[in-house]
Known about the structure:
By secondary structure, this protein is an alpha+beta fold. Helices cover 31% and strands 15% of the residues. It has 14 helices and ten strands. It has helices at residues 3-9, 15-28, 32-39, 44-55, 70-75, 78-84, 106-116, 127-138, 144-153, 286-295, 299-310, 339-342, 354-361, 373-381; strands at residues 86-92, 95-100, 120-124, 266-267, 316-323, 326-334, 345-348, 365-367, 390-397, 400-408. Strands 4-7-6-5-10-9-8 form a seven-stranded antiparallel sheet. Strand 1 and strand 2 (95-100) form a beta hairpin. The model is unreliable at 158-164, 166-218, 222-228 and 230-261 (pLDDT under 50).
Amino acid sequence: MSLSSLIVQREIATIRQVEEALARQVVYxxxxxxxxxxxxxxxxxxxxxxxxxxxxxxxAPAGELPLPTDRARAMVPPEMAAERAMVPLxxxxxxxxxxxxxxxxxxxxxxxxxxxxLPIDQRVAPMVRIxxxxxxxxxxxxxxxxxxxxxxxxxxxxxxxxxMPPLLSRPPDVVEPPKMRSSPPFKHSPSRGIAITALPSHxxxxxGFPAVTAEIPANAPAPPVTVPPPAAKSTTPAPPSVDGPPTxxxxxxxxxxxxxxxxxxxxxxxxxxxxxxxxxRGPVTFDDAKREVEDAADRxxxxxxxxxxxxxxxxxxxxxxxxxxxxxxxxxxxxxxSRERVVGIGVPLDxxxxxxxxxxxxxxxxxxxxxxGLDAVLIADLxxxxxxxxxxxxxxxxxxxxALFLGDCGDLGV
Length: 414
């Protein structure tokens, strides 16, 4: 499980705070932990433990790292330590203990072990503590950003100026929307077979790409979820209502596939669309798009313009916003599932699919959807039946995919 998912699942920070950190990461760079510590009052030791868990390594001591022992310091050249963001701490039982902010690549670890003649134990620490230790132990200059963050973690005011990133004297106010009494924003339909831990309530972001949310009244009843009987043959999903759960996909045979073997989407209760539908007359030419880009006031306008331009070339189009390991439906157009239905869909990106492939590669992907697995479930839930090639385009800001566009041309293929 990714670090962002662990942080939200363990309730160390809210989804909004994680999104603020991810948005800040796009603007200012750095790792997720550094940006999260800058925007939220979270326990550093707990975040360090989750970081270590996500990397499959033991954590280093919390807080400021101990000074390297003379023997450990002599084994790693300072330039290599700074380049790889690693700090030699000690030699224990003839093993070199290194503090790292992320796992060393296997080839680097092998080269170090061969050159040193000692095996390596990696311990995980936040990047801010790695940079602090490199300054104290090896004399490297410390960036103003980390100076400010160290002062903040120590409870003392920062003595340095500068405008990027801005110093936060207190965490941002987090206003959670009203929650439904008995239903989380994403729940797993029992008819789909496997249990997926529901995420905490989603809310509206201010700094990252806008979250796709529906304003749900506090007294709104949860829609009923029905479990249909096992089907003996292949069936086509019935047209769903806007607010109801999806009809399950039955793959055929004498009985449905084993629940433990069948992937599923995350479904969110949607009372009404979070944004009013747009009305546009006529086609969007390339010159129109260039002119409207200059007038776009926010990210919503840019995403809407991209979708309006791209959807013209496909029988059916849908766009998702990436939040951690989930792709949330944002808009749809054409002969398939409606926009109101799509905004209730969440696609797990930690399972093999067209969307996860495009997100990981950060390049457009053109291929037929798989006949089974998550692709088959997604295509059915989008009320499409094509098995020809479809196109998935990731919208990438720097190195992070923030949205995914999917278009298909029916049986003709893309």
